[in-house]
Design goal:
The protein has helices at about 5-10, 105-115, 120-125, 130-150, 190-200, 205-210, 220-230, 240-265, 285-295, 295-300, 305-320, 320-335, 340-355, 360-370, 375-380, 390-405, 410-420, and strands at about 15-25, 30-35, 55, 60-70, 70-80, 80-85, 90, 155-165, 170-175, 180-190, 210-215, 235. By secondary structure, the protein is α/β, with parallel strands linked by helices. It binds zinc ion. Zinc ion (ZN) binds near residues 44, 46, 47, 84 and 86.
């Protein structure tokens, strides 16, 4: 193997001439002086079309390459400018890096792969870059993948959802494909115009091919879906229906907790340290503390409860009949989505009449919303869109929004979500 070929393989570059290699011992940096091969020279950085030269540019530029063993490596080259027929005066393209990027293709691809697999601290420490740089890299890697793949191919049954990030101040609209369980689109905002952007991108012909749309019951989503996909069956998103019930349950738990705290305020105060054996009992205090900790016992699906949480639930059943009734109502509604369609219709109606008479305001109110969405809830069950996998996509996206916290732009967050949960995952450089 000739030296040049070996260097090209090591760096993961193509169509590149290696002029000379220089080792800066103090900086522990390998600098490779390179230039594009003759056929690659003088092309527009944006479209790649051969274009007449404009000027030699502002001097030599460097691109960070993958480390070679333990040593950092950089490519150095001229960065001349050309005059493109379409794009005007623009920096000429180089075969080793994306336009306007400070890192090679191989470096970008490795960062993108890592970002979908490892923690923030792993990526930044291993690649020796800031998290913000990771954001820019994954944004451009995703743009490249998106340009060569059609993520909307064969889209039939979709789910539209809104997700909050930055502690609830900002929102993303997301669209998932129910058949492949993949994320297909996301954009910042939470208006009908935001959802409209998706349908614009999809185009009229493909909108007509959408057969089912699930959503969280927000009116603005409903309106735009009715306009753009008039033929689609609109169904309720089971994830959100169960979420409503969980919220109603939490309202009841908070009321119970507030009552206990009101009682606790009338109880004698205790000083620091272990209370004396003959100290008067403080049932209000103990109750408030236990109820605060009971949140997860009430939220979690009963089959996932730890032994400790089961004990807590049994304690609620024995001491707080109203809160326990609220818990059973929540669980009852959740179970409806696990039944076959015929049984679900009957179970839902029984649930509605139970909730109407339950004398818990939060659930009487919930019952009204359920009646309003009854047809769509049953449609979700009939068309088998009640699967727990929708919930898991939801959970995964929420997890990514937390990891992506610290990116400056929502575009980086969206790129990370699509790279991780979309149909086209990034590959490691040099692997098939
Ligand atoms: Zn061009």
């Amino acid at each position: 193997m000739r030296d040049v070929s070996l260097w090209r393989c090591l760096l993961g570059v193509e169509k590149t001439v290696i002029e000379r290699v220089e080792f800066d011992e103090d900086a522990e940096l390998l600098v490779l002086h390179v230039r594009p091969t003759a056929r690659q020279r003088g092309r527009c950085g944006l479209c790649g079309r051969p274009s007449p030269g404009y000027d030699p540019g502002p001097g030599r530029r460097r691109w960070r390459a993958l480390d070679l063993g333990t040593i950092r490596a950089e490519l150095e080259s001229h960065a001349p400018r050309v005059t493109c027929r379409t794009h005007g005066v623009v920096v000429a393209s180089v075969p080793w890096a994306r336009h306007d990027a400070g890192h090679t293709y191989a470096f970008d691809d490795q960062v993108a792969w890592l970002a979908t697999q490892a923690s923030k601290s792993t990526v930044t420490a291993l690649m020796r870059i800031a998290w913000r740089t990771v954001g820019s890299i994954i944004t451009r890697v995703w743009a490249d993948i998106d340009a060569t793949h059609d993520r909307f191919a064969g889209l039939r049954r979709i789910g539209i959802d809104e997700i909050s990030y930055k502690k609830g101040h900002k929102y993303l609209m997301v669209v998932v494909d129910h058949d492949t369980r993949r994320l297909v689109w996301a954009a910042p905002g939470r208006t009908s115009a935001t959802v409209g952007e998706f349908f614009d991108l999809l185009g009229e012909e493909r909108c007509a091919q959408i057969t089912h749309v699930s959503a969280d019951g927000a009116d603005f989503i409903d309106t735009i879906v009715a306009q753009r996909c008039p033929g689609a069956v609109r169904v309720a998103d089971p994830f959100h229906i169960v979420q409503w019930a969980t919220d109603a349950l939490d309202e009841v738990r908070r009321q119970s907790w507030n009552q206990a705290r009101a009682l606790a305020r009338k109880e004698p105060k205790r000083g620091r340290g272990r209370p004396p054996v003959d100290a008067p009992p403080r049932p209000g205090n103990e109750r408030a503390k236990a109820l605060k900790g009971a949140r997860y016992s009430l939220w979690k699906n009963p089959e996932n409860l730890s032994e400790n949480q089961q004990v807590k639930l049994a304690w609620i059943a024995a001491t707080d009949p109203l809160l326990y009734r609220a818990y059973l109502l929540k669980e009852g509604l959740r179970v409806v989505f696990q039944l076959p369609h015929a049984a679900a219709a009957e179970a839902l109606d029984r649930w509605i009449s139970w909730a109407r008479r339950c004398r818990i305001p939060a659930f009487v109110k919930l019952q009204k919303s359920i009646v309003k969405h009854r047809t769509r809830i049953l449609a979700a069950i009939e068309h088998n869109l009640s699967n727990g996998l929708i919930e898991s996509t939801n959970t995964k996206i929420r997890l990514i929004t937390r990891i992506a916290f610290g990116f400056k732009s929502p575009q980086a967050l969206i790129a990370l979500a699509l790279l991780t949960l979309g149909g086209h995952r990034p590959a490691l450089p040099g692997r098939n």
